[in-house]
Every structure is written in C-alpha cells, then in structure tokens.
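Run log, item B.
One chain of 121 residues. Sequence copied directly from the ordering sheet:
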Amino acid sequence: MSSVINSLMNKLKHKFQKLTKGYSDEELWSLDYTLANIIYKYLDAFIKMHRHGYPVNLKEGETYNDFDEESKSKEWEDKLIRMRDAFYLIKEDKHYENDENVELINEGLRLFSENFLSFWD
C-alpha cells in the first residue's frame, strides 16, 4: 500500500512542478527522451502542414539558374522525414536494437543540426 501512496505522491509532485515551473524532475531524469518526444511531435506536424517554402541551400558553384524547385522541395521533404524518423527511434527506445537504427539516428541528428535554422515557413 505504501508504494501505491508513494507513486501517487510522486505523480502529484510532478504535476505540480509542471504547473509551477513548466517542467518536472521526471522529465529531466531522461531529458533525451523528453526532447525526442517534443521534437518528434513538432517535426511530424511540420511535415504534415501545408508549407510555403523550403531552404534553398545552393551548393558551391550552383546559381539560381541551375535551381530545380521540384527537386529542392523533394530533397527538403526527404530530410524532414529522416529527421522525424530518427527522433521516433529515440523516443521509442529503439536506438539499441541494431546497427541500422544507430545509423538512421546518427544521420537524422546530423541533418537536424545542419538544418536547425531552416525550420520556418
């Protein structure tokens, strides 16, 4: 019975912390999972929304005359999906399952850091 009461008290404490501070100790204990959940949810919504633009990121030597709008748009969509999928694997604790997941996560995190300032519409 004591463990049930302790569990309820902890849940109340964490809810109170969330209301008063905006976060709880429980979220900080596994901050990687907390952030992965948040980022996954927002990337998923960003992918699903009707976006009006995408980053151009011209390659060295490339000019706007060489610019193919359709392929750049598709490239950005593919990157967003790979980033979202990486955070899904993290939040679902699947990053230890196999080497392929590790590679997918590493690629998604790399893309996320490289494109962090491009999340606009």
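Observations after the first pass:
- Residues 23-118 form one domain.
- The CA atoms of residues 3 and 59 lie 59 Å apart.
Flagged for discussion on Thursday.
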